[in-house]
Amino acid sequence: MTLNLDSARSLCLLRLSAIGDVCHAVAMVQAIQRQYPQLRITWVIGKVEYQLLRHLEGIDFVVFDKSLGWRSYWQLKQALSGQRFDVLLHMQVALRATIASMMISAKTRVGFDRARAKEGQWLVTNHHVEPLATPHVLEGFMGFAKAIGVQDLTPTWDIPVPASDSEFAANVVGNDKVMIICAAASKAERNWLPERYAAIADHAATLGFRVLLCGGPSELELNLATQIAGNSQSAIENWVGKTSLTQLLALLGQAKLVVAPDTGPAHMAVTQNTAVIGLYAHSNPGRTGPYTSLDYVVNVYPQAIAQQFNGSVPWGTRAKGADLMKMISIDMVKAQIDRISHQQALL
């Protein structure tokens, strides 16, 4: 049954993490805003993710800081004290999100369908989205908009960037044709080899791209960037750990092309309408790939899965192993760079 929110006044969205997922959620929430401009929308979001989205228009944010442990739930309860929402969109399948949802008072509580409502989510919801057999994460999220009567589910993004960050990116990029490598995923096993990233940077340089390395300040990312730069024969610029999330978003928007594994910045680039070459071995790009660049993914996931399972596997099954990314060759990525550069006239 589809809900109708024409007479509703308030909606709470619960999606705490991660960067890529909240980027998908932005397209959904902005579809809701187009359909129901009268709705007051509150988004319960993670601390890091808030830094990326805090300038969104028409959204009241409540930050959930999981580093506080059990105190984070009490803090959330206090922040929402006295508020009762017409509808809650419970969009995260995780035990901490299930517990957090109990701090939110709402008449209608929309969750995933029974097959996807894991970690106890089905216990705290009373309305469910339509089942989808093989959805991309973005399409799964759009199911929540559809469940409350949104008709235009075309994904679009408008994530405001402070003028100072846009100016920063413009000064860095100038008039150059820039390719950005965001080399690191949240788990080291999903990272490609540094010497192969370096070879790709060298190839891009021969095509006329100026190559930047971008990413966060973690030790893993800093070390990987140093290794890539050390293996390259071209002048790679290392910006890893030197930008805020909104500065990174602005840089991704100024770039012509982004190369990345299954990581948040790939989806940030999608929101900026920048072409992305995704490198996938562990996860199914049909589910988690860069949504507007799925045709350019370098995908060895089917081979990785075939090595570990006989026959078909449930949608979204992850392949496991520390060496799977080695299955992606330099030539595979070069071919996609050449193809996308030609087809989208990037050079």
Describe the protein in words.
With 347 residues, the chain is of the alpha/beta class. The chain folds into two domains: 10-147, Rossmann fold (3-Layer(aba) Sandwich); 163-343, Glycogen Phosphorylase B (Rossmann fold, 3-Layer(aba) Sandwich), CATH 3.40.50.2000. 38% of the residues lie in helices and 16% in strands. It is built from 13 helices and twelve strands. It has helices at 19-35, 47-53, 71-79, 95-101, 137-147, 163-173, 194-206, 219-231, 245-254, 264-271, 285-288, 301-308, 330-343; strands at 10-14, 40-46, 59-64, 84-90, 105-111, 127-128, 178-181, 210-213, 237-238, 257-261, 275-280, 298-299. The strands form two sheets. The protein has a six-stranded parallel sheet with strand order 3-2-1-4-5-6. A six-stranded parallel sheet has the order 9-8-7-10-11-12, sandwiched between helices. Helix 2 (47-53) links the parallel strand 2 (40-46) and strand 3. Helix 1 packs parallel to helix 5 (137-147), helix 7 crosses helix 8 and helix 9 (245-254) crosses helix 10. The longest helix is centred in the N-terminal third of the chain and has 17 residues, at 19-35. The N and C termini lie far apart (49 Å). The mean pLDDT is 97.
